Amino acid sequence: MLKGKKILIVGASRGIGEAIAYAYAKEGADLVLAGRNLETLQPVAETCRAMGVAAYTIEWDVADVKRADEVMAKAAELMGDLHVVLHNAGVIDREKFLSVREEEWDRIFAVNVKGAYFCCQAAANFYLSAHENADFKGKIIVISSECGHQPHISPYGISKWSVHGLCNGLAKALFKRGVVLQNIAPGPVTTEMMLWEPGKSDAYNSAFGRMAHPEEIADLAVFLATDKSNRIAGMPIYINGGLNT
Known about the structure:
By secondary structure, this protein is of the alpha/beta class. The chain has one domain (6-239): NAD(P)-binding Rossmann-like Domain (Rossmann fold), CATH 3.40.50.720. It has 6 helices and 7 strands. The protein has helices at residues 15-26, 38-50, 68-79, 102-130, 155-175, 214-225, and strands spanning 6-10, 30-35, 55-59, 84-87, 138-143, 179-186, 236-239. It has a 7-stranded parallel β-sheet, sandwiched between helices. The longest helix is centred in the middle third of the chain and has 29 residues, at 102-130. The radius of gyration is 17 Å and the shape is globular.
């Protein structure tokens, strides 16, 4: 389904991003995997290469937004082009409202909101320049959260509310220029980010009686990366077992 596609995954070393990398590789896409730690990215890249595709790594903390354009250009150079940018990088807070510290707020917004904003900006600028004469220039997929659907008092929840607004606004602005922006909003998923507290998974019960698995998010990400989904833009697609919708 993705043979010939050149895809950059930002936040690919574990969890949802790792599962998406394997799903994309299985479908034949060449990949650049970006993340804060090359040591954790390398085994993911090696597994992807074993599936017969090209897989490269770039060390990048998305909070370092000054490097966003450089990363897009490097990814395109490594693969020969760039068709899809998937933004999955995110951090979550552990504190309750009354104990949240300013530095924690700043880190969450630096990654979840500012990082997403400038990653999308850099991707759009690359597409508009490199594919100037094409009607369809490229695709951006943002992994957000069902938290963006609800009022929140945690920095994480508020950041995801912001990301939903960003995705809706950018999708409208970019679609008419040939860049498609899509938003996947998972509910609780069995990743290290969610399972930081013993028994945490027991608090989330869908019709299946469990959290989603990262591979279930990856299945949708595969479809969205194909040209068959090019009319889907902006509004979040929830994968949450019917919770909080």
